[in-house]
Amino acid sequence: MFRKWLVLGIWLGFGSLASAQVSASENACNTGDAEACFYTGAEYAQGSGVAEDKQKAVTYFLKACDMGVPDGCSTSGILVSLGEGNLEKDVFKGVDYLERACGMGHVDGCSRAIGHRISDTSPAFDLQKAVEVAKAGCAAGVENPCYWGLDWSWDGKKGEYPSLIDMPTAGWFAEEACNQFHDMMGCDVAARLYADPDAATFDAEKGLTYSMIRCDEQKAGAHCRNVGGVYLSIEEYELGALYMRRACDFGHADACQTATDWETYNREMAEYEAKMAAYRQMVDTPLSQGRYGDAVSAAINSAGSKDLAEKAILATRSAGRMSDISTNDLYAAALWFPTGPVRAAADAELAARGTGLEGTFGTGTNAPGMADARWRELYGTSAPSYSSGSSSFKPAPMKSASQISAETREKYRWAHCTMKGSNTSATVCQ
């Protein structure tokens, strides 16, 4: 803080503080003390205790600069660019010093250096150099250069500098503005540039990251809707519904019905999966206990699942226990499986029992209504049927999801599965 007051004192013309002709800080500077070098420069610049000598002041300021004191760089730049005292005015050299200060995170150094580079009245006018300096300052953590660089590269500061428009550069500044300062425009531009599959700047991971920041932190409904569309396209339906609901809550009305549809689908699928888990347990438990007939009966008569029936019957055949299966369950198997190993196993057991129905039940009598009529004749009820194996509800596909290319979907899938905090064990990531 005291160093800043010294810099200010140079421009306000503070008078001599002592009559000594040797700087109190000079010896310390010559032993490698960077702060002492700066104070020595300030004493010579002000004539504080020594004869005023701007050239000698700059010598010591630059020593401080070389040793990592950004105020030394910026003060040298100001003095030289203005030609103060016994200095020869040199705008180019002065701006170089200011740019060094900017790259070291010096706020005023950035403002002055970039001011020269962007002004067509300055001898150091150079628009491309202005962008480079802004990048250096932004990377060093100075806030305004991030915004200036973004304004120039995104839209030429609304057309004032069209030659500076460059989307990759805009992406760089947008990321820095978003990451360092949570700037809404920075996050928005980053999301737009990286999330657009048709743009040369497309990057699935970055696009998803910045769109989620815009949604989760900055409550931008349109970006929530975009995130929801991405998740639906890669079959992450729970997350898709979640972000569509957020889009709706944040004012994006077009997402409301989509959110409701997918919430309904997810709820029905959860109920179906819970039911199927119970059915699998009903089949797996007796199989593990060697109760093969009970397992087949549960698959056919309780679960009504063709998949579970196939699993149970093939396991029973492998165990040599087909005789455990009831005759009516064998008939159901013949009805459900017109061909294949399950049908062959059922036919073989029916033949072994001498029923005379092997190879005909469910095929020769499979004209519309005939198989069920035959079952009614034998058992007095309709033949068991199997379930379709999924929820009957299917939401309309998102337009963006249906149009998105397979390659883009895979990029988004990869991005989702590798992002920090993602459920990498989810089906979509396998």
From TrEMBL:
- Signal sequence span is 1-20
InterPro entries recorded = HcpB-like (IPR040239), Sel1-like (IPR006597), TPR-like_helical_dom_sf (IPR011990)
Q: Which domain of life is it from?
A: Bacteria
Any Pfam family hit: Sel1
Q: Give the keywords, sorted.
A: Repeat, Signal
SUPFAM superfamilies listed in its UniProt record: HCP-like
Q: Which family does it belong to?
A: Belongs to the hcp beta-lactamase family.
UniProt cross-references to PANTHER family, sorted A to Z: CYTOCHROME C OXIDASE ASSEMBLY FACTOR 7
* Name of this chain's protein: Beta-lactamase family protein
Organism field: Hyphomonas jannaschiana VP2
What are the leading ranks of the lineage?
Bacteria, Pseudomonadati, Pseudomonadota, Alphaproteobacteria, Hyphomonadales
